[in-house]
Amino acid sequence: MLDVDFDVHAFLETHRNKELLRFITCGSVDDGKSTLIGRLLFDTKQVFEDQLAAVGKDSRKYGTTGEAPDLALLVDGLQAEREQGITIDVAYRYFTTEKRKFIIADTPGHEQYTRNMVTGASTADLAVVLVDARHGLQVQTRRHSYLVHMLGIRHVVVAINKMDAVDYDRETFERIRGDYEAFANQLGIEHFDCVPVCALSGANVTRGSEEMGWYDGPTVLDLLERTPVHEHDLDRPMRFPVQYVNRTRSDFRGFCGTLASGRIVPGDEIVALPSGRRSRIAGIVGNTGAGKRAEIEYGGSMERAQAGQAITLTLADEIDISRGDVLVHPDRLPRVSELFDARIVWMNDRPLLPGRQYNLKLATSEVPATPETIHHRIDVNTLEHHPCEQLALNEIGYCRIRTSRALAFDGYDSDPATGAFILVDRVSNLTVGAGMIVRPVTDQLTDKSSNVTWHIQTVNKKARAQQKSQKPAVLWFTGLSGAGKSTVANALEQALFQRGHHSYLLDGDNVRHGLNRDLGFSDDDRVENIRRIGEVARLMADSGLVVLTAFISPFRADRAMVRELMEDGEFLEIHVDAPLEVCETRDPKGLYAKARAGVIDNFTGIDSPYEAPEDPEITVDTSKLSVDECVEELLAYLKRRGILIG
Prior knowledge:
This protein folds into four domains: about 10-225, P-loop containing nucleotide triphosphate hydrolases (Rossmann fold); about 240-330, Elongation Factor Tu (Ef-tu), domain 3 (Beta Barrel), CATH 2.40.30; about 335-440, Elongation Factor Tu (Ef-tu), domain 3, CATH 2.40.30; about 460-640, P-loop containing nucleotide triphosphate hydrolases (Rossmann fold). About 25% of the residues lie in helices and about 25% in strands. The chain is built from 16 helices and 27 strands. The strands form five sheets. Strands 7-15-11-12-14-9-8 form a seven-stranded antiparallel β-sheet, with no helix packed on it. It has a six-stranded mixed β-sheet with strand order 2-3-1-4-5-6, with helices on both faces. The chain is globular.
């Protein structure tokens, strides 16, 4: 019977004002993602009786859960999914509780459908990573966790599912949580919540578990209801990508779009990029409330706007602005460049090849773009970097992209709305890649002017080297911290000096006091650190010097990048080898102790990988040889190579 006192309008208004959380479920095949979502829908009373009856019928047909209804079938809608018992496409489901509204993206676990997982994760605020308690972390668990982190999702819930299959064993749960924590530390995931669940029965999904009395933490639903949403969007710089220029009448010209981040009020000064022209906001036009239509008039109708609102802006000046331009505040500018480095997830059977042209869509801009270089491919299991010439389906690479014209953008980590892009095949119009911008190349990596030429000098490299009775070379010492790189390199330079040779030692710590003082120790900063040193070493070799460099340089691809800068035979990779336990025992700077204590993040050998050389020119083992013995071996080698003459 209808309650005549029920206020429908108040109910709808309350529902409209509820906060919305978008989240994904991901993980390996058959870890129970669809079942967990089905349980959430069923327990929050979002399933109609006819739906439940249909699920019961299909459950008996496919024989997945015996007589009990298989709640996964509430999500697996494709016939192929039901027959195979897997998720293929991204399935979106909606539900609500008293505290919040939710949009769930159930993403496939098969590697073949990684592209669909990226699609679902691209708009998510939170990720629920499923792990089968029987099997622990799988390849796809690691791949999806890497993608979640790369896509900027900072809220992660690890649901260790099927605890009933391991008799609700606490030790199994703790072991898997420890394994995931180790991997999360490598990735840089700062925080995650780990919950033991049985999605089939609902234990610790929407209710506490009597079977797991040893767990007293929140349920999955508790975490979904309490996780903050878009807490950073308003604090980010104002970014307004122009979607459409509105000319409803001769005396009105407005710029339509969705405010991607930040806030804006009438009177604010703005800069239109990439042109750089300035003006002020005359007015903001938008939806003034439920059931009301905003009148579009010069001067606007809103006192302010914030991230997520679709609005129309009018300006005090007539300046040339079109679709794809970005309006920003002048005190917090994005980068403007046609060249940038980005991480790319490749999503097409045809590989990404440098030199091939695609269409790039960034916010409201669409321009032709060409991948110029693939710096390296990232192994999501070990996080190692591997040199490669192309990216295959589902591979992740670090690439340099050139666009046909300058674009305004931010690094993805600082503002995903203006730091994410897709690559589209120009013939098939299929989306073939998803990218996250790391840094512009113009400001850091190339000349700011294209109107420069390399001048041939009368005194060349060969003449400078002959004057010094030597051949130019770059001796690249690599190894773990504490292996003895700086010590051996310093002793070798002293020996070269005593023998009348001309050399210079570039030490890792010394360089970071000046040239590279602006760089940290993230993987991307390490790449840039080595790139800069490589360029300096190349110039020094051009002067005829024997250049010694002592850097950890943990990634093979980065060392290969420096080798490519030099002429054949000039780059000599010297592996200063010593076991990790020996290096920790030495610990001359106390860095290992700090890393073990968690004071230092991303420390090579502890929570960041070191990729030892596969085929170095020479290896010296400092755990077996003294410094003097290492120097003698290196001097003899340099003479055999013809680097030292006389």
